[in-house]
Amino acid sequence: MSSAPAAVPVASSGRAQGRQGSLEQQSIRWLVSRLEGVALFVQSAWIIITISTDNLETGGKVFLSIVAASHLAAALLAATRRDGGPSARGGPWLVAWIGAALLTPLVMATLIPYGQYGATTACTQLCGYPVPVIVMLAFYPWIQAGSPLLGRWVTGFILAGIVFIPLGVIVITHEQMAATNWWSWFNTILSYAGAFGLGIAIAIICRRAVQQVGASYQRAFSNYADVIHSDVGSALSALYLQGGNWSIESVRETLHDLDYNVRSKQRRFERSLNESVYLADLVQQVYLSHSRWIKGLALPQVGDWSVPGHIALDIELTLASFLKNVLKHASGSKARITCAFNEGELRIGVEDQGAGFDPAVFDVPDNDLHKRRQAARELGGDVEVGFTDGRTHIELVLPLQQDANGEEKRS
Amino acid sequence: MTSVLLVEDQALAGFSARALLEGHGMSVDYTEDPSSAVDMLRDGAYDVVVVDIHLRTPAQTYEPVKPLGTMQRIRHNFQVSGLKVLAESERLRKRPGRVVWSSGEADRKLQLAFAYQDLRVRCYCDKHPRQHHVSRPSQWELVHAIENAEQGAPFQSELASLFLPPMNERSYFSRLFEKPAWPEIWEALALGYRKKTEIAAVLGYAPRSIRNEIDEMLDTVQEINPGFHAATSARSNESGRRNQARFGPVAEYAAKNQAYFLDETVQILARERFNR
């Protein structure tokens, strides 16, 4: 047994398993928290610009530093929480955040005299505070997340109020409304409308993405249910074909077939979701498919061993191909499935006491073994054949890891 | 007449197995509860005990709180399984023959390995009837497993051998619980704790020591199950954080084998190794 250093791009998608019902809601919360994180970070950056460029007194700088720090903390919280940001479920936090952000321009206009703004003009700087909130105000109702407080009517009411914020800022800082001030007010409202449109656009994109993910899982589960239903239908048909002459034995056989078919489909479906697959389950499937024809097939003890999900199907198909080969070339002889992990490689194969076969079959393009060897080589492995003491050993060798570019480590 | 104690939670399976064994001239007592089974073994002299590993009855209070992250370490009880009967029967003066009757489901493989490697049970019978697909009927397997167990001879049904650990492997149990802190760390991971700081806080260790233990535990997982390690470490590596790359596969191994790491018998014997 050997170690298997990690490194591979493995097909993985099992995280959503078993939680399809709440997948959409979880994804929305995740999106909300990330967007809130960005919005809060933008706001904190805006405040830090004010601190560093405006001509503020010490008290004002301390106050704004606390505000910026609280925004940064909230941004971190939003970005790291799995189940939604601070306001994903509404509550007083949301109201406090929106209220504070909307009132900030008016408070700042009162506190900082005209002519002491560093970075931009007074209105541009002060009226920038509500922009992230406006984006979120558009985003929440459209994505149907967050507090019921932010229904569309309430949002509209708040937006109507927002229209007067730049007006208030201009009146406080300029103490009059000249023609240029009206033009400045109009531009600010246009930018608010743009921010609102941006929020809606983000929400629509997010919602569609989430719905598509949910729909793809739904389709996968529906397909699985259809397949299972088809198996049940086949079992019933098999019974009806007997024209009512049912015996306990025939019903039992049919139910066993149904049990086997459903289990094998279930496992194939699980393999498509899982990162790792138990070797015992995989070998069992192949064994059950062939045990009618190959008597006395000995199985290995593999216990807890697993293989990466992305090579499971190849292993199953190759092992099945080996057993067909045993049936063809070594009919009646004893055979056993072998399995081992060696130096980062999985070796799984079949050993029999048959007459052996011509290795040239590997070079016949239509031959199943040729196809399986090609598939193994594409995964960085190979199919090896050995003849010792009257026994033939055919073995699939697969590396357990690939390098970061997906290139195989085995040459 | 061979006297058999059957420990099985599925009424239909228990009923049919009892009928089958009585049809073969055996006397059968049947219970669903492993604790009762232990008392019955002490009171009565049975030749053979047939045990299912996963028993629904004692797990009923456990299952509703089982989903990861919903259990608190201080409030949960360990899960009682058929391993309790196997372990207790080993301590009896007149030790009965032991047969494990299991379907080898995914989350039971480490428990089967424990029975095989540490409790030295040598008779295994596949529970699922697959007589349509295999050369011998499963009833034959159960009867012969009991006969072999009574005579002290090994028996493995055709499919049961698949679920047993490879021959000559060092005990998984001794490797997975190699150091004194590991039983508790595996327990916390199986309960759903997913941060080193949380585990450190709940167990009373320093976070750095948890990190070192996790590093060694990962090496063990890699030795025991290189394929699982290759599959899970790939995704953990994608996160780009070394800590996650080491922690992720160990946490997933604990989650995948939750029934084993929260098994009462396994945890008690693991702690007994270090007298804790």
The total beta strand count of chain A reads 6
Using only C-alpha atoms, the radius of gyration of chain B works out to 20 Å
**Percent of residues in beta strands of chain A:** 5-15%
Number of helices of chain A: 11
Task: Give the beta-strand count of chain B.
Answer: 6
The end-to-end span of chain B amounts to: 43 Å
Brief characterization of the structure:
The complex is a heterodimer of chains A (411) and B (276). Chain A has helices spanning 23-53, 58-80, 92-111, 122-127, 131-143, 152-174, 179-240, 248-273, 279-290, 309-329, 368-378; strands spanning 276-278, 306-308, 335-342, 345-352, 382-388, 391-399.
Please render the helix and strand layout as text.
The complex is a heterodimer of chains A (411) and B (276).
Chain A: H1 23-53, H2 58-80, H3 92-111, H4 122-127, H5 131-143, H6 152-174, H7 179-240, H8 248-273, E1 276-278, H9 279-290, E2 306-308, H10 309-329, E3 335-342, E4 345-352, H11 368-378, E5 382-388, E6 391-399
Helix pairs in contact in A: 1-2, 1-5, 1-7, 3-6, 5-7, 6-7, 7-8, 8-10, 9-10, 10-11
Chain B: E1 3-7, H1 11-23, E2 27-31, H2 34-43, E3 48-51, H3 56-59, H4 82-90, E4 97-102, H5 109-117, E5 123-126, H6 138-151, E6 155-156, H7 172-176, H8 182-191, H9 196-203, H10 207-224, H11 226-238, H12 242-256, H13 258-261, H14 264-273
Parallel strand pairs in B: 1-2, 1-3, 3-4, 4-5, 5-6
